[in-house]
Amino acid sequence: MKGTGLFKILIGGLAAYELLGMMKAGNKTVLRPPGAVDEDEFLALCIRCGKCNQACPYDSIKMGKENLGFGIGTPYIDARDNPCRLCDDYPCVNVCPTDALTGINNVYDVEMGLAVIDTKHCIAYQGMRCEVCYRECPLIDEAIKLNIYVKPDDPTHAVFAPIIDPEKCVGCGICEERCVIENPVAIRVKPRVIKGIF
């Protein structure tokens, strides 16, 4: 009897520990709105009021469901569905009552994430002219530049390959939304884990 009770406590504790780790780790993969403080602090500061969601003029900010674990009710952005448009006045940041979103004066203060190109699926790297992510980037020729070179197996054609400057990319996700490739998309925004580190 005593052994069974102890076993249940141990199993319950182990399950809770694993669930806690899974939920916290899961949140680190979410793209937060501009000005989000580091994830652990964000989860502590965010009161799940939804003001940022209501203030977003593009409906880019969603509120987390149960799949976000401890992040339930917190704001996030699904870049492929509806990225951040980098509003001039950052209404989401301005309405935040707790400084969970803070410190944004202009676009260069934004550090949501970093775009990463899957060169195996990007058609520009295969030699087809695309440039969609490059042309749609709000920081054109800064965050995304073109590396133009002669195609190795075809000296009469050039490759216009997009490259990301990690110092300039703010992680808005517009490139991911506009990518013409599906399953998998050829460019994705990787959320930042710690401010300044991707």
Automatic annotation (TrEMBL):
Keyword ATP-binding tagged: no
SUPFAM superfamilies: 4Fe-4S ferredoxins
Annotated InterPro entries: 4Fe4S_Fe-S-bd, 4Fe4S_Fe_S_CS, RnfB_subfamily
Domain 4Fe-4S ferredoxin-type positions: 35-66, 73-106, 160-190
Pfam families: Fer4, Fer4_7
Keywords: 4Fe-4S, Electron transport, Iron, Iron-sulfur, Metal-binding, Transport
Molecular functions (GO terms): 4 iron, 4 sulfur cluster binding; metal ion binding
Tree of life domain: Bacteria
4Fe-4S found in the keyword field: yes
Protein name: 4Fe-4S ferredoxin
Organism: Cytobacillus solani
Lineage of the species this protein comes from: Bacteria, Bacillati, Bacillota, Bacilli, Bacillales
